[in-house]
Amino acid sequence: MYIEWTVFFLLPLAALALDLILGDPPSWPHPVRYIGRLLAVEEAFVRRLAPGSLKAAGAACLALNAAGVFLAVKLLTMIPVLGWLAGLYLAYAGLALGQLLRECRAVARDLKSGRLEEARARLGGLVSRDVSALDEAGMRRTLAETLSENLNDGLVAPFFFLALGGPALLWAYKVVSTMDSMWGYRTEAYGRLGWAAAKADDVCAFLPARLTAAAMIGAGFFMGLSWRCLEAVRNDALTTESPNAGWPMAAAAWLLGAPVGGPAVYFGAVKDKPVLGPRGGGSWDDARISRLVRLAAAAGIGSALLMQCYFHPLLHGLP
Q1: Could you tell me the end-to-end alpha-carbon distance of the chain, in angstroms, rounded to an integer?
Q2: What pLDDT does 310 receive?
């Protein structure tokens, strides 16, 4: 019993350590890429065979994909010894804090050194918006937004499901998240096909998004930031279109004293996003971006440790 408890308690923490050390080497195989290929095949199939029932087809694909991946990972991780190693790899592959911090630091270095086109190219690989017309201040603000929002999407939410149900539940969630990122657009092409994925992702990320904001505020306290901002964060988060994305972004804005949001270009159209954070606050300079990177690292690691220490004894009936 003690050995089993130790092994499965350590697996998520070992996965987090691997993520921070290794990141996501582009030459390594990654399960999300295979999920993406599966979704491309499914999209072509349902658009050809059921063009008038895309909403139902999208929901069916979501249910089948999530259940199928959950079952496959569950069976794989039940194999003696090999299953634990496979579970460790899948847990590591499902987390993305290390790579997020690396990419954001690289963009910040380029901006600090005045290499604006290199920074623009790197930033364009991190976000879905058009960054071609952004000035230096706009790129820094966009970097702050994507770092804070993806702290939840890349670490807190996946680790929440990893701690709650192991690699199988983590990858069921990753299916939902990947389908939302590929299909969950409110456009003519994807509004019906991606409806179920978008709603499911909102439900799955509801608690983790709020945990992310709380972890950022907690880390901000230890870093000496203006951490008495929970009410302001809540008020700003409720103004965003997404029920979840505004929480970590508002936390970053209030903790660092610089607003995020405002107009952004998506797929050729300008979207006027609500401004989060102190109106008339400071700008996202090099110092604020550097502190935000440290804040995200501390909040991510701290929240993962707290979730694992809370969920594991609770689920296994241990003192």
Answers
A1: 13
A2: 85
